[in-house]
Design brief:
The chain has a five-stranded antiparallel sheet with strand order 2-1-5-4-3. A five-stranded mixed sheet has the order 7-9-10-12-11, with helices on one face. The protein has a two-stranded antiparallel ribbon with strand order 6-8. It is 49% helix and 19% strand. With 497 residues, the protein is α+β, with helices and mostly antiparallel strands. The longest helix has 48 residues, at 124-171. A hairpin with a 2-residue loop joins strand 9 (393-402) and strand 10. It folds into three domains: 3-122, Beta-Lactamase (2-Layer Sandwich); 137-320, no CATH class; 325-494, 2-Layer Sandwich (Heat Shock Protein 90), CATH 3.30.565. The protein starts with a helix and ends with a strand. The chain has helices at residues 3-13, 37-42, 63-78, 124-171, 185-206, 212-218, 221-240, 247-264, 272-315, 330-347, 366-382, 419-423, 448-458; strands at residues 22-27, 32-35, 85-91, 94-106, 113-122, 326-329, 350-355, 361-364, 393-402, 405-414, 462-469, 485-494.
Length: 497
């Protein structure tokens, strides 16, 4: 019996047939001498009987086998052992990827290589999954870039819209809302009631200035009926529309209708002064409603400008080049943030108060930590309100150091956060907006707290939130969440060593 036959006999005595990995032996030329069922399944060979196959026939690139053998023999010569090799096979129409662990079989007399023994592990699913993941990551990266570009364009559009609305507001001066936020429903109701009362009185007075013949020569009967209906509506609009925020649009339509009727009047039949008086009162109400809509839209634009900027920064954070952390003074970081939001705070009639400045440094990714601080201050401004007009709403920024960490508190008086939302951590979930956060149409993305906490943790810190009633006498009231709460968001950052 020659060496090759002896090797085959010894190999077959080992019960390898049902091993879950493929075990094989080939001649030097690649002819299969023996192999188990796992190999046969991988290469789609008959599960029983003669093999009659050469491993070379399965290589996509024939040179790959020669290269693998050369590396194997070199490793064996150097005594460094052999590593697994990833092989690309084609079995029928299917691509198969296997990891090959191989050793040479040698003639004991002269050391000549007479074949190879090894095992194959099918890793096709893992390779395809990895390839799919890489493709998916590429698509996500491309999509993220596109989203970032779109959001950047949206921010630019919002900036242009803000400038346009500001110009409109300036043209419509004087502004009766100038000393209060547009969400102050009590003052809005008072202003609308006053202007509507003047217009309804002007209509009633106008309808008595001439006899029927002259009136019908100046306007059609339907237009006179329309004026009469407008006057009735203006006297009772508060009962008809209980939601204060919906009244301006309805009153705008009435004022515009009266203004159009004034333009339709045939001259020569009614006193010009009476027409001018009616037109003037219609314009005053029209201007107030337009001004309110412009202010409310600008308020929404300013809210969304910061929200979209935060969203863009958050979405693109993984594809931007990571900046090294630098040593920065806390006060300088806060000044950046306050500067960013000063216009928004002013427009929202929220006063920013600063307490406890500290002369401390921190090691931070400036872009990320400024974004986190901006998120927290933006939320504090957005959810602030005050019932005691004309006293403004406020946000208090309090900074102090304890146990080698800087604590920055953003405290406001305004919209509550329920204890359940704080305790179960839902306020930090991506996209989550609190049960009371939509009060008075406030806009948002539900990203600010999530992003702020992520950034803080990545810097070795954290973010905590607490919210409690401003007045303890409401503790057992059914209107518990209808009162203002004092809410505090605290970000913690380790000091620079």
């Amino acid at each position: 019996m020659n060496n090759q036959s002896s090797s085959i006999h010894a190999f077959e005595n080992f019960d390898f047939r049902e091993l879950p990995i493929g075990v094989y032996m080939t001649s030097f030329e690649g002819e299969f001498q023996v192999c188990n069922k796992a190999i046969r399944r991988i290469l789609n060979l008959p599960l029983d009987g003669p093999i009659n196959a050469n491993i070379k026939q399965f290589y996509v690139n024939p040179e790959e086998r020669d290269n693998a053998i050369s590396k194997l023999l070199k490793h064996e010569k150097d005594g460094t052992g052999s590593d697994k090799v990833l092989l690309h096979f084609r079995v029928g129409e299917r691509d198969v990827f296997v990891e090959d662990f191989c050793k040479s079989l040698r003639n004991k007399q002269n050391g000549e290589v007479i074949g190879f023994i090894g095992c194959l592990v099918d890793v096709t699913n893992e390779i395809e999954a990895s390839k799919h993941e890489r493709e998916l990551q590429k698509r996500v990266k491309e999509l993220t870039f596109d989203i970032g570009r779109i959001l950047h364009t949206s921010n630019t559009t919002l900036l242009m819209t803000d400038q346009t609305l500001t110009s409109i507001i300036n043209v419509l001066e004087p502004n009766p809302f100038d000393d209060m936020p547009v969400s102050a429903s009590d003052r809005l109701s008072k202003i609308l009631s006053e202007k509507s009362g003047f217009l309804s009185s002007a209509i009633e007075k106008f309808m008595l200035i001439a006899d029927d013949e002259r009136r019908l020569k100046s306007l059609t009967k339907n237009r006179w009926l329309s004026l009469e209906e407008d006057a009735i509506f203006l006297r009772s609009f508060e009962k008809i529309i209980p939601e204060v925020e919906l009244r301006p649009s309805a009153l705008y339509k009435i004022a515009r209708n009266v203004s159009e009727i004034c333009n339709e009047i045939e001259l020569g039949y009614l006193p010009r002064e009476a027409i001018r008086d009616l037109h003037r009162e219609a314009w005053h109400l029209l201007k107030v409603t337009i001004l309110y809509d412009a202010l409310k839209t600008r308020d929404a634009v300013l809210q969304m400008e910061i929200a979209l900027q935060t969203l863009r920064e958050y979405v693109t954070s993984d594809i931007r080049e990571t900046k090294n952390r630098v040593k920065m003074k806390i006060d300088n970081l806060l000044n950046q943030v306050i500067g960013r939001l000063s216009s928004y705070a002013e427009n929202s009639h929220v006063k920013i108060k600063i307490k406890g400045k500290v002369d401390e440094f921190v090691y931070v990714n400036e872009r990320e930590i400024v974004r986190a601080l901006t998120n927290l201050l933006h939320n504090s401004i957005k959810y602030s309100w005050h019932r005691e007009f004309p006293k403004p709403a406020w946000v208090l920024i309090n900074t102090f150091v304890s146990n080698g960490k800087v604590f920055i508190e953003f405290e406001n008086w305004g919209v509550p956060i329920s204890a359940e939302e704080i305790n179960d951590g839902s306020i930090f979930e991506l996209g989550y907006r609190g049960a009371w956060s939509k009060d008075r149409g406030r806009l948002g993305t539900g990203i600010g707290l999530t992003d702020a906490k992520r950034v803080a943790i990545s810097h070795g810190g954290d973010v905590f939130v607490e919210s409690r009633p401003a007045r303890s006498k409401f503790l057992k009231s059914p209107d518990y969440y209808d009162q203002p709460f004092i809410t505090k968001a605290t970000i913690i950052i380790p000091t620079a060593l």
